[in-house]
Design brief:
The protein is mainly alpha-helical. The chain has 14 helices and 5 strands. The protein folds into 3 domains: about 60 residues, no CATH class; about 190 residues, Intergrase catalytic core (hpI Integrase, Chain A), CATH 1.10.443.10; about 30 residues.
Length: about 290
Amino acid sequence: MSSFESGKQAKDILSKPFGSVAKSELERVKKELEELLPKLGKKDIKVLRSIIYQHWQKRFRKNHPPKYGSINKGFNDQEFQKFFRAIDNDRFCLLFLYQAQLGLRIGEAVRVNIKDMDLETRELTLRTEKVQTVDVLLIPVPLFQQTLAFIKAHASRIEQAQGYLFFKDKGGSERAEPYFDTNYARNAFCRYVRLAGLDSVYAESDEPAGKPGRRLHRLTTHSLRHYAITSFAKHANGNIFLASKFARHHNPRNTMTYINTNKEELYQQIDGAFGIGQAMALKLKVSKSENVSS
């Protein structure tokens, strides 16, 4: 049985209400998976894990509150400038700009291909990584010009990489795809964050007993997507539905988790809404009422 067939069985079972799934059916699929897993490669196992995880998220974490509250996992403007000043490689600079200006996920950014660009309209056809839909995004003029300059400087390497802009280095990994591995891009991102002096850890991950927790860094490649969506929302005067279209979210509620409020802006709004004048007036009223009652 192929991993696709086992994955489809697991998906079918997970989509049914639990009470309608016979225990024997679950045991059968479990046994088949136990026999199949040792024969599968890493990529196939990831597919199966993804199917199960997506159903678990959908059923059990739908209304789960964010664990780390109001921590801003996106770049602010100052951090954004410092980060890009630290980058000394034109491929990584362009890669991270595609995330920061178009809100691409890292898996989508590394797959940007010249064949998916309309060089007359500046449109990029994109296969959305998360829901496997096809979208079209407009590349901003400065990013488009930078892309054209990059293509001109690396035309032969891009051609060898079948049109992928973010081609692998020679002598790199043995994987068949000619573009950056996502982990390779993430490692480069972390290196530039450290060079920019922006690295910070806000917590450790929860792990099973006996296993050390993993350090959770505030800034990740996904922080660039946060920055893009936040910037777009500001320029759209807070139009969440328009921002949701830009972010390629089906539910605008998901977009809200990406829009970061600058701490200084938040504090100004708090001062404006609950200023010292209101507090003094309230204190005076309370004092007067106490004097009258006494």
